[in-house]
Predict the structure of Peptidase S9 prolyl oligopeptidase catalytic domain-containing protein.
Amino acid sequence: MMWRYLCGAVLALGCFQAGPASAARDVSPVDAAIYFTPPAIEDATLSPDGLRVAARALVDGRPVLAVYDLSGAAPAVRPVALPEEERLEWHGWLGPRRLLVSLLRQGAAPSARFVTIDLDTGKRSQLGAVRPVEAGDEVIHIAADGSFLLLKSMVPDKPTPGVYRLDLASGAVTLAVAPREHVWNWYADSAGVIRAGLATQGKRSWLLYRKNEQDSFSRPTRGAGGLAGADRFVPIRGSDRGYALAQTAAGRIGLYAYDFGKGRLGGLLYEDPQADLEGFQTGSDGRLLGVNAAGRSATHWLDPAMAQRQTRVDSVLPGRANRVISSSADQTRSLVFSESAGDPGAFYLYGEGRATLVAAVSPALTNKRGAEMQPVQYRARDGLEISGYLTLPAGRAASGLPLIVMPHGGPFARDSWGYDPWVQYLADRGYAVLQPNYRGSTGYGRSFVEKGNGEWGRGMQRDIDDGVDWLAAQGLADPRRVCIMGASYGGYAAMWAATDPSPRYRCAISFAGISDVAAQLAYDRKTFDERDYRAWKSRIQGRAPSLDALSPIARVDALHMPILIAHGTADDTVPGDQSVRFHEALTRRGRAHDYVAYADQGHTLEGPGDNADFLTRVGKFLEAHNPA
């Protein structure tokens, strides 16, 4: 997501961000359920002639595949009939009026099939045979002229996947690349030729490579650097050159040239001074077009024509993060997804200097006053610079605000700029929300991640606390009205804060939190071999005398504040027992607290009902213990 540009200093409190509509904003509180209404449109893509958009959509309250006709003054939407017993996996265009869809039939033996749909007649035609659904199936190339696609899929009686070629006119299916031992990922060039396969065995990785379709795959001549930690390869058609992401000397992920023939990195082509790269785009001719950095929604375009188009789009949709999703064959029209941290976004057709609304993701929120998120930086007590995001309640002076600090899960993950229903719900009720990317967070380079090793409940927690102190020192947050709320590792941080004698927080909220680190590691052990398990345990424990010394449940007697505990009963990442035991320990000690278990829910809540219920409980809990 985009690193938000500001109106002045890093912490800019008076920026006005224009929304997609000019209607007056509704300042009444938003009901929690509205934040979790199913999206009215998603997975949208533009037809080659730029006159239609195909998307998953809600039509008369039902989720369907729909086509938006953009040839008139306003978009006209109509559903595309699909068999009721099958579920849409994905869809794409094969021509101006022809769709390709993948349909999934669930049951004891799930199966899938490719189907083309003629929009003029509604006729559906199956391509190829029905295939069993295998884990790891992936479409890795669709020819620009709609003639064929390449599907990575498991091959009967083989332990690794091969690549099938499906002729999109005749439906003929052939095995284009047979499975190779240890190869789990295959890479095609822009002509649809599989050029490389990435093999992994334990912690070792290597490439198999061929220059063209007539050659056999072989292991490249080993260069000085080999793979050098590279991944996400893109070969350039007709040459041994290509691109890859790999770590730079500064410890961040950057973009390099890659020599496939010699199997080694070339020169560094692009490095962001602050963040890891997460992806890049190339043209059909192999030109490098743009890069995507962690935490930023917009693509940084290196190609002048793409950069100019981005500038034009941004000029008609100002103050928002605008991402070109797809364009017409003649490049005169583009489908743009436009969002802000206070708005879940909308799709627009851009052409002739104008942006026409296709549909909003959440129409019920279109005219609501969302809160904007801004990047912030502060120094931890040991001098380490911590980045994060601050969301301020709209319509309130930025002074003495009640604060919710919301550490992310992982912990080796990160928060990014963008729309977050939890954050928006809290800001709508008058709270400032700080999301710190404490040490160990990803996206800031290897060194920053490694600084989180051995820092559960210590350096990571101090970084969170220091963000609170920094906002209080700024006068922005009222230090007497601060609560901590998080999920997964963030839930652990909330439990840890609740059992810390420090008076910094008034209350805590934990969703799917970890209360017993040793028990969590024992649960995770099945996913590691013995060597990796010891390394992971050491990474968490560090110099602590034991895992109990890092566990909130081991110091539950010190709990000194109200806490809300929630967990899904079907969580297979952090088992619900982690919250149940903490709840039971508090109950035995007669400590008042709130506890809720969500039946059949996993590590994150699915569906509007339980999500709305949880946020409503959060709102009532905060109103009782830290009113805004």
Summary: The longest helix spans residues 608-625.
